[in-house]
DNA sequence: ATGGAACTGAACCCATGGGTACAATCAAGG
DNA sequence: CCTTGATTGTACCCATGGGTTCAGTTCCAT
């Protein structure tokens, strides 16, 4: 076993502590001593499990990316039900995704990815391959099912998924000051609603826009109050 | 004058060299010696113009952000003409914006912003205030004029601008591997086209989608060939 | 020509931090 | 009990790099 002294798995604690410190300081500014302290471990122990500061970073990033991806994939679950209230379901999924997107760890992961992408090109492979790409694929699959059921007017599911995510997360960057400012949940809900409205304008079933009927003004296109969420 | 030896403005050369080096190495990894070499200047000269490495970074970022913003605002110029072929104009503007968005310096600026945002919170103010925010505002202004002229069905210009930019740049991140992989110009043109199509589905003049008419399959919604661009 | 301001090159000081060595310590298994 | 192996503090080596000093140099202004 890799555990002798302190009970829990050493390696796991080190990786989590490492990500925390890297997120707080950035790669170059983070020192291994602080990582060790964060993980409740002595410095040589860190080097005992991970050879380098670089490999420490790589493994910490990979673990964090895996967590983030799992959470996001789970957020798509409501779309498995193809018979429910579609706008409400989309709004729910969008809202969940926005919450995860503004999560502290997810923001830190994005920041670290952006900052160290030049020094660690291989990390991009790890994270992006098991990150936004897989999410887009999963979402595209769900949307394809809905299109096949006649509930959406989609010819290219990948495009639809990409544009849904763009409409969802695009307006966020400005509002959240690139992940540094917290944003309250009702704002997230509003952002999800406008994104879903736009998405349904593009891919929704026949809209038949009568003169004066501006969909974007209606809280919920098909009359549901949509007040109960969460 | 601040120029004695080498003719050109010292400070300017230093700031440009600094941004180049920071973009190449990141803030922490960049050393002032290399900045001096890049600017063709001795190390004490750098400290003669900028007190700190930190202030050097700040000023370099500000200058770079200003350049990027100016280029982007200029890309909106075609929208000043409110009478032209609207989809073609939007495509043109979108294409220009995508080119600027994938520009090496712009990508480096975004990376540096993301990476050092925790250590330099004030840089965010400088860059974002004179960056995407101003761009969104300018675009919203143009779109409002077009809406007033009856060419777009927009009630909230800010929202429309935000969503246009989201549809435009959102799909880019995945395709360009976060700004590390170059992308060819025809792909950019295609991305601009799909974004414009989606945008017009949301905000375009009355669509009257007949059964079987999928706008996203048509290269140009109103019949123009749209082959001549640039 | 000459004083002065900016520039240069090189050496220097010193703090930070990656990585290692080592003796002491603790837990598990025989 | 005793061996084995991981862990722990601590001290250490050494490379990197921010920032400064200084003597000499170049250029401009008067």
TrEMBL record, chains A, B:
PROSITE patterns for the chain: HTH_TETR_2
DNA-binding in keyword set: yes
Entry keywords, A to Z: DNA-binding
Lineage: superkingdom: Bacteria
InterPro entries found in the cross-reference section: Homeodomain-like_sf (IPR009057), HTH-type_TetR-like_transc_reg (IPR050109), HTH_TetR (IPR001647), Tet_transcr_reg_TetR-rel_C_sf (IPR036271), TetR_C_Proteobacteria (IPR039536)
Domain HTH tetR-type: 8-68
Pfam families: TetR_C_7, TetR_N
Keyword DNA-binding found: yes
DNA-binding region per UniProt: 31-50
Protein name (database record): TetR/AcrR family transcriptional regulator
Organism listed in the record: Actinomadura chokoriensis
């Amino acid at each position: 076993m890799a555990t002798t002294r302190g009970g829990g798995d050493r390696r796991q604690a080190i990786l989590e502590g490492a990500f925390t410190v890297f997120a707080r300081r950035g790669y170059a500014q983070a020192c291994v001593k602080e990582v060790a302290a964060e993980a409740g471990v002595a410095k040589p122990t860190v080097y005992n499990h991970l050879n380098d500061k670089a490999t420490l970073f790589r493994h910490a990033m990979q673990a964090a990316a895996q967590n983030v991806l799992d959470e996001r994939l789970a957020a798509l679950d409501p779309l498995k039900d193809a018979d429910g209230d579609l706008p409400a379901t989309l709004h729910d999924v969008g809202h969940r995704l926005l919450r995860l997107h503004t999560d502290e760890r997810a923001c830190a992961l994005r920041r670290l990815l952006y900052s160290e992408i030049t020094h660690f090109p291989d990390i991009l492979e790890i994270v992006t391959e098991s990150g936004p790409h897989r999410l887009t694929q999963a979402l595209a699959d769900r949307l394809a099912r809905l299109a096949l059921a006649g509930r959406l007017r989609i010819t290219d599911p990948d495009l639809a998924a990409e544009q849904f995510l763009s409409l969802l997360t695009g307006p966020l960057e400005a509002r959240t000051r690139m992940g540094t400012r917290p944003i309250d949940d009702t704002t997230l809900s509003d952002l999800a609603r406008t994104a879903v409205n736009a998405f349904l304008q593009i891919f929704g079933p026949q809209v038949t826009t009568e003169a004066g009927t501006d969909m974007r003004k209606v809280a919920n296109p098909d009359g549901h109050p949509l007040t109960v969420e969460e």
